[in-house]
Amino acid sequence: MGLSDLTASPGLYHSATKFLDGTSAVAAGLLPARGLRSHQRRYVRWLTFSDAVVVAAVVALAQTLRFGSVTGESLAYTNVDYAFVSAVIVVAWLVALASQRSRAAQVLDHGLEEYRRVWTATLSVFAVVAVISAMFQLEIARGFLALALPLGLAALTLNRMLGRRYVAARRRAGQFVSSVLAVGHPGSVRALARELSCHPQGGYRVVGVCVPEGAGVGLAAVDGIPAYQHRGDIVHAVLRSGADTVALTSGHLDPNEIRDLSWQLEKLDIDLVVSPGIVDVSGPRLMMRPVGGLPLIHVDKPQYEGAKRFHKRAFDLCLATAALTVAAPVMLAAALAIKLTSHGPVFYKAERIGLDGTPFTMIKFRSMVVDADQRLAQLAGRNDGNGVLFKLRHDPRVTPVGRWLRRYSIDELPQLINVLRREMSIVGPRPPLRNEVDCYDQQVRRRMLVPPGITGLWQVSGRSDLSWEDSVRLDLSYVENWSMVGDLVIIASTAKAVVLGSGAY
To answer: What is the pLDDT of residues 145-192, one digit of tens each?
Structure first.
């Protein structure tokens, strides 16, 4: 008897599960074997092996650079070869990586926690080595440790980054994913399914949705996904869908029902995740606070003033000054190219709306013909943009030099002057036109709680290819979750998008 026979008969299902727990059901062939997913096991084995290779290679390289060879040099006042010391450090390093659970499934592939554990393990090992060396006067060469520590941090971090890129590529190809049954009310499961499908790198693929009986949903499918109704027997839908993970949306079950469901899924070794129903809130703003056995998610308020704004302003001033200095030759060449190839001024100046709705004059290199604004009405019906923003893939107003400047975002460089004038930031929401701001509702106006940016989440996530809704959502997400680390990531991603010329026209 197989799974299809079991799920085809609810009575048989209840009879079977009455006498069999999850382990027995798997052994009997009624339920699919689960356990740690096979792709997770392979990935963890690969990380274990690659970490060992990296650590051994780093220690050997540090010893070679310090002493000229991996053998032959002895510890001061002893006959102990440094090869033995290196071997002990390698073993201790690998044990620390394991004890910090740096390869736990919960931290792999997303967030900074995986890197934090790798760094903590590495720093702990070298701190212990330094303390032992001082206590027992072993006089381990400082140059050896000073080489091994930064090399190890960099190499292990790079190893994890390459691992993530490999997993993300496999997930985009439909591999290395968990099959999810989304449980909840129709609107909630539809939103969850769409969000997961838009981010395949997260590793979740919705294979079914489960809604309460009588929810008014046609059970053929919800957005093309098989749908099931339930009257509390969610496990039956799990078995029919073949899912290995249940995603429970907010407000669908009461606490006792969630606890009972978790017990049922535990027997079948099926994962349970709960969506709290909030979106676009970054990890640092979320904190779990158990109160009387009830896990509460505390969401920190966005911070727009005080020290954070001062740090951002100082960062903008330093980076803008450095960028203008480095980019001066490129800007001079661009100015000459514009002046020699088309009639009109080198710079294009236009009004934009900045922080708290204050207007300012934004400066760019002119990439269009002089009368481009007057010719806009003739092209209004050919908009390739997102409705609110006018974009044209093959805009006849763009000059040959201007097309090249736009492709690599060189036309944006004069905005560094706006940054020095405190009108813009290096990273922030897109600077809007006045007529766009007039159409904003109260929600979209939150974009103006921070200065507009030369680049932002909208640029590294698709630039001109984004819809209006996605642009607004990304800008609001940036406004509420700003951090210095996030800005550095966006700047690095912007450099990549500019080099590839992706999404620009």
So the answer is: 899 999 999 999 999 999 998 888 888 888 888 899 999 888 888 888
Strand pairing category for 347-353 and 359-365: antiparallel
pLDDT above 90 coverage of the chain, percent: 29
Nearest to 245 by CA among 275, 273, 287, 217: 273
Exposure class string for 194-204: b at 16+ Cβ within 10 A, else e: eebeeebbbbb
| d(C-alpha 498, C-alpha 132), whole Å | 49
Return the number of other C-beta atoms located less than 10 Å from residue 3's C-beta: 16
CB atoms within 10 A of CB 79: 6
Structure tokens, 387: 């409705």
Of 65-74, 83-92, 322-331, the one with minimum mean pLDDT is 65-74
Please, are residues 473 and 444 in contact by the beta-carbon 8 Å criterion? no
| CB-count exposure of residue 449 (10 Å: 0-12, 13-18, 19+) | middle
The two counts, helices (H) then strands (E), for the chain are: 18, 11
Residue 210 near residue 183, CB atoms below 8 Å: yes
pLDDT at site 20: 38
What does the alpha-carbon distance between residue 363 and residue 401 come to, in Å, rounded to a whole number?
Answer: 17
> Bridge-partner residues for 467, per DSSP?
none
How far, in Å, CA of 244 to CA of 10, rounded? 20
Bridge partners of 365, per DSSP, are 347
What are the phi and psi torsion angles at 11 (to 5°)?
-65, -45
DSSP string, 282-332: -GGGEEEEEETTEEEEEEPPP--STHHHHHHHHHHHHHHHHHHHHHHHHHH
Q: Which residues contact 226 (CB under 8 A, 6 or more apart)?
A: 207, 208, 209, 241
* DSSP-assigned beta bridge partners for residue 263: none
CA distances from 43 to 51, 153, 157, 243, 441 (A): 12, 21, 16, 21, 46
CA distance 410 to 402: 9
Is residue 90 within 8 A of residue 59, CB to CB? The reply is: yes
Euclidean distance between CA atoms 236 and 213, whole angstroms: 14
Domains along the sequence of the chain with CATH: 38-172 (no CATH), 177-277 (3.40.50.720), 307-500 (no CATH)
Residue 266, token pair as written in the block: 């535990």
Identify the DSSP state of 432. Answer: P
